[in-house]
Amino acid sequence: MTASLQEIDGLNSAFDGPKRVTVVGAGVAGLVAAYELERLGHQVEVIEGSHDIGGRVHTHRFSHRGRSGPAAELGAMRIPAGHRLTMHYIAELGLQNQVREFRTLFSDDAAYLPSSDGYLRVRDAHKPLIEEFAAGLPRRDYGERTLLFGAWLDASIRAIAPRQFYAELRHEIGVELLNLIDHIDLEPYLSGGAGNRIDLHAFFADHPQVRSFCPPRLERFLDDVLDESSSTIVRLGNGMDALPRRLASRIRGNVMTGQEVVGIDVGEDGVDLRIRRGIRTVVRKCDYVVCTVPFSVLRGMRLTGFDQEKLDIVNETKYWPGTKIAFHCREPFWEKDGITGGASFTGGHVRQTYYPPVESEPEQGAVLLASYTLGPDADALSELSDTERDALIVKELSVMHPELRRPGMVLAISGRAWGTHRWSRGAATVRWRQEASLREAEQREAARPQRGLFFAGEHCSSKPAWIEGAIESAIDVAHQIEWYEPRTSRVFAMRATGTEKRP
After folding, report:
1. What's the pTM?
2. Which CATH fold would you assign to the domain 59-83+322-417?
3. What is the mean pLDDT of residues 110-115?
4. Any residues with CB less than 8 A from the CB of 391 and at least 6 apart, and which?
5. Rounded distance, CA 151 to CA 134, Å?
6. Fold of the domain spanning 5-54+243-318+430-494
7. Strands (E), 103-257
8. How far is Cα 57 from Cα 77, in angstroms, rounded to an integer?
9. pLDDT tens across 252-270, in order?
């Protein structure tokens, strides 16, 4: 017997009503997913294991003499202006008036980078860089600007990549690329106060065909190099944590912290979450769940009802550690050295050093992001005690900035080692050495749901390691849930209409 259209419409309306969704994780991905699901008419609650929101967006505010002092970004600190989703939410949440320029590596002529003869100013580095770069080439008859291009590309890669990673790939930017560059007019891309640098981001934007001469497995890494060295990066002036906090304020459902999920059981009729609250563990039965915790944390939980392919991607997804160490300094001594912002490539264990703008009252001091490291470099720092780590950074960095040794210059130190942090177990998913087809396959598998359990987070996106990726995945998961119908409902509807295929 075939059901009437009216009966079918009744079936559809039964399945199209508001869904009850529990979001696990109150980072950017979880908060955007909750925000978008509520906009679609669903009932949402957010639970977070830690006692704060924001995930890997973490703004630390130093205090001085009993007052709030300058802020340091120990997590996400910048947004490429081309990340349209992130910029959209900044506008939608009314944060446009907080958008500020972010000055990055080599953007200040007075900043430093290391050489075999000690530290060089960026403005003076081009000749030594060219000589060092050319010495490693099989032929040296390239034009001066081609060598300048290659030298700054190599310097950017060396500054951004962990030391071990750079050692493995430094010869992969080969002569084919330079042969092509040698026939392109580079004058429009000269930058810096003396025109002795190359705007790599602008060049590759205008010449996308050049990308084909780079090894395919370095495509993702090159994207990050270009993003990090772009002149169009922004930040939020009052702290990057304004984004998750403003998102949370727009969510009508409960956003609950201190609710640690320790187990997930996927069943035919819903998802059971085992939640630790202090010394108690309770089981919450949920219709739908969005899991946004990193897989590095998820694989430490008790997981049942997952298929083997999903367990494989959870267990095999690689996360790179990242460590940031910020100094609260008595004064911005680097300004007297002629540095007005941006960052130096320090090398050694320190790697990168950033000079955030001074936006608090002068008597509150200034923040120096003394060290930003990734991968094995971050691991090396996290293996030290805090005292050993801080002493090592001061020792290395004071070669470049001897002012750090002045009594009372460093008022306080704060850091975050994301690789060992309980709620992240890694700074970000990094798929730098994977070809595009493998990256896309892993992304699809990471985002693939398990019945009523859905997944979001930068690890499920085409932009891992960026806020943009977290937002992209959250929007995708909201639409997945909006259109999701349990298998039982689809079978029931097919039987009612006589369209079910029977063996």
Report:
1. 0.90
2. Polyamine Oxidase; Chain A, domain 2 (3.90.660)
3. 94
4. none
5. 8
6. FAD/NAD(P)-binding domain (3.50.50)
7. 112-115, 118-121, 190-191, 197-198, 233-236, 255-256
8. 8
9. 999 999 999 999 999 999 9
